[in-house]
Amino acid sequence: MKKRRLTREKLTNWLWGYSMILPLLLGLGVFYFYPVGKVMRDSFYNVGAFNKSSWAGLANYEKMLSDSGMWKSLGNTFSYVLIIIPATVFFSLVLAALLNTKIRGRGVFRVIFFIPTVTMSAAIAMVWRWIFNGDFGILNYLVKLLGGQGHYWLSEQATALVCISLVTIWMGVGYNMIILLAGIQGIPSVYYEAAELDGASKIRQFFTITLPLVTPTLFFVLTTTVISTLQIFDVIYMMIPAKSTAMRYTQSVVMYFYRNAFEFSKKGYASAIAVFLFVIIMLLTLLQMRLQKKWVVYD
Amino acid sequence: MKKLLAILMAVAMLATMAFAGGVTAAADEAVEIHYAYWASMDEYYEQCKAAFEASHPGVTVVLEHTSWGEYWTKLEAAATGGSVADVFQMNGVNITKYADGGVLLPLDDYIAASEVDLANYPEAMNNMYNYDGTQYGIAMDYDTTGLWFNKALFDKAGIAYPTSDWTWADLTAAAAALTGVEEGVYGIAAGYSDQQGFYNTCFAEDGWFVDGEKFGFNEPGTRAGIQCWIDLMEAGYSPSELSLEENEGYLQFMAGKLGMIFSGDWMVKYYASEDSSVSEICDVVEVPLMSTGKRASVIHGKANCISVATEHPDEAWAWVEYLSGPEAMKLMGDMGIAIPSYLEFSPTFFEAYPQYNMGIYADAAANYSFVYPSSAYNTEWADIMWNELVRAFNLEITVDEACDNIMEQLG
Hints:
The complex is a heterodimer.
Chain A: H1 8-42, E1 45-47, E2 53-55, H2 59-65, H3 68-100, H4 106-118, H5 121-132, H6 138-145, H7 160-185, H8 189-197, H9 202-213, H10 215-230, H11 234-239, H12 247-250, H13 253-263, H14 267-295
Antiparallel strand pairs in A: 1-2
Helix pairs in contact in A: 1-14, 2-14, 3-7, 3-10, 4-7, 7-10, 10-14, 13-14
Chain B: H1 2-28, E1 31-37, H2 42-55, E2 59-65, H3 68-81, E3 87-90, H4 95-100, H5 108-113, H6 123-128, E4 130-131, E5 134-135, E6 138-139, E7 141-142, E8 145-150, H7 151-157, H8 168-178, E9 186-188, H9 194-204, E10 210-211, E11 214-215, H10 220-234, H11 241-246, H12 249-254, E12 258-264, H13 268-271, E13 282-285, E14 297-299, E15 303-306, H14 313-324, H15 326-334, E16 339-340, H16 346-351, H17 359-367, E17 369-371, H18 378-393, H19 399-409
Parallel strand pairs in B: 1-2, 1-3, 9-12, 14-17
Antiparallel strand pairs in B: 3-15, 4-5, 6-15, 7-16, 8-12, 8-13, 10-11
């Protein structure tokens, strides 16, 4: 073993290196690590309005166990995951595969599908709220034109969560499509040429070449979508007013966290909810990392 | 690489200079008073600001409007972080929380040393902003509730307009006659509404909501005051709760789709506006008498409070004093913004809308008003009440079940 010696050159290198990442580190420290630590601390305290706090021990976590609102919102969150994840992955993969073929105007289509991603979600929510409106919405107009019966889509128990999921899928497909498209384009063309010579059809090529070789990207898309869906908040916040019958059918864990922290001034309890969600996300992500050996192909 | 570094360093240095420049500039400037408010009255405040700055050289008022939906979240975060506006608008629901939280500057000494006389303001409003014997805010306006009606729909249904002798039975009969008189027209908006709904009927039925740590949802009067709205819902004389959530009652009234609606006085500026299709054909009357032979209206009003953290308490007080004083109060009434809390000038608001019977709002305040229910942990009980009662308004459960659930959760 060589003895590690701090040469002058090394020191200069380190200094440069650290000074380069210092701005990022400072930003992360102030806006990320400190708040994370603060939330973990607060989860063991009663923190009320204006940050007045007192030691609570495990009371916040115990309260969570018997809080029906908490379990309802956890159930809602998993409903979102079950609807949004398969649909987002499926549609973005299909779109990516189709937009990888040499069709006319594919640049235009790529832009069209990507537009929802770069549009302000507040604007998106406003338009969708109008579409879904039970009295004046265009959706009910079309449904009635076809002889169906109108609904208060964003207020009824049976439809509100599905409508929010649809908007979220519509917003998320473009971004994931671009990531998958990049993955597909990274597959060497020799595989396709060989398959072509062997007479494999396009469909066959997709399932035996594209799909296996795009799995590393697919894994990335799946993991990030699961994480972001478990944290679903903005679409609910903008489409469901606090005083809406549908709030209890649609509120996610993060929405419930937000209302506790900022509407009911129960920041300690809200922090416990945040920590609980963090643990769930971590476990699910670890599980996915384990499972990836079974289906992700790295060459 | 060297070139890039040089550019980055230059940018960094420029940023430092810009920062330093900003600091020096701020120190040289006159005193700035930041004023946070939610009510949509920008034009009124612009005029107040201009007049105030003219009479107080060296003081600049910075108006910071936040919409109602975000106002309280933002204000609490700012108060917690120590960056709250010097002066801000307050309401009856939140005053206890803010006074108890030590965020507000006690005003007693300032009031004693100034020309402000609390006797000029409604007693209910002074009490609302007095916590533990200390005055924390001065009311700027007050609100009560009345019954608005669409004359054209009444004519079409061939029934007489509401009068001050009306009982709830008369209202129900009219709602029945009005429903369906035109396609998609309902008699009344009977969805979940507290200040402009069941609070008024409950108080008239001798019900009550909160008194310190006790709650009144077991009181027969409270339940009766809610039941009367549910009866209208069940009879189909009102748009459904879901409809009224997606398209609020006042909008449906303005669109000519509702025969009647309970509305606070501040709604008049919408009903009289160009966007309203009923501005020429609507009017307002006192809310009907309930089974007790009494009527009731909740009274509420906004106030101006000063942050305890302000660096310029004297200038902040000067602004509060100006806003509560005769000049600003008269302007508020003349512009038809809200009922000025300065009693002498309250009628100016009614005179701004001579086409409507606005005087009933002053009668309500003087003769049958009840203070807006509030308690130290208000947000929580109000949310529990909402969660359960909205199910009754959706006709999922009965009023008794909802009230039992509320009492159970409030322990």
